[in-house]
Write a structure and sequence with these properties.
The chain has about 170 residues and is of the alpha/beta class. The chain is built from 5 helices and 5 strands, in the order αββααβαββα. β3, α4 and β4 form a beta-alpha-beta unit.
Length: about 170
């Protein structure tokens, strides 16, 4: 891959990571996503399930919806999606339905990943659309923010349990 193309991919994934940090700041699972069309970002998103009380407020869905609004079309045939974490089944379905051309993701999701870890939905030739998949772009950074977030969540839950126990004693 030519160096200039790789630099652009890193720029897009770094923006997805910035969005993941924004999600984390808001107490959301830190996942970020961007949709790129003709070398420009036309859709961005990050997890917002807690803020919206909606199970569909995943980073990918948010980015795809913004991109569709910007293009005035649900067909994102010439678009690429960059996301920090391997998409789940719901998001993989949205990627197929929107006809995204290529997916670049950072780290795998061994518990819910539907692109490589648990399923291979995006390249399944039984579906009406297949997506080119590239994994591992800024994987260490993508994994680190998730690991740190969940470490903090577990520590906070442990403190709450201790406080509740002390209160009851």
């Amino acid at each position: 891959m030519p160096l200039i193309m790789m630099e652009n991919k890193l720029i897009y994934m770094k923006r997805a990571l910035e969005l993941a940090f924004k999600a984390r700041e808001e107490g959301e699972v830190p996942v970020g996503a961007v949709v790129v069309f003709e070398s420009r970002i036309i859709g961005e998103g990050y997890n917002r399930r807690e803020a919206t009380n909606s199970p569909t407020s995943h980073a990918e869905i948010e980015a795809i919806e913004m991109a569709s609004d910007n293009l005035k079309s649900w067909r994102l045939e010439d678009c690429d999606l960059y996301v920090t974490l391997e998409p789940c089944m719901m998001c993989s379905g949205a990627i197929v339905q929107s006809r995204i051309k290529r997916l670049f993701f950072g780290s795998r999701d061994p518990k819910a990943g539907a692109v490589r870890s648990l399923y291979n939905l995006l390249e399944d030739d039984r579906l009406n659309h297949q997506v080119e998949v590239y994994e591992g772009l800024l994987a260490d950074e993508s994994s680190a923010i998730l690991t740190e977030f969940f470490r903090e969540v577990r520590a906070s839950q442990k403190l709450k349990k201790l406080a509740a126990k002390e209160k009851s004693d």
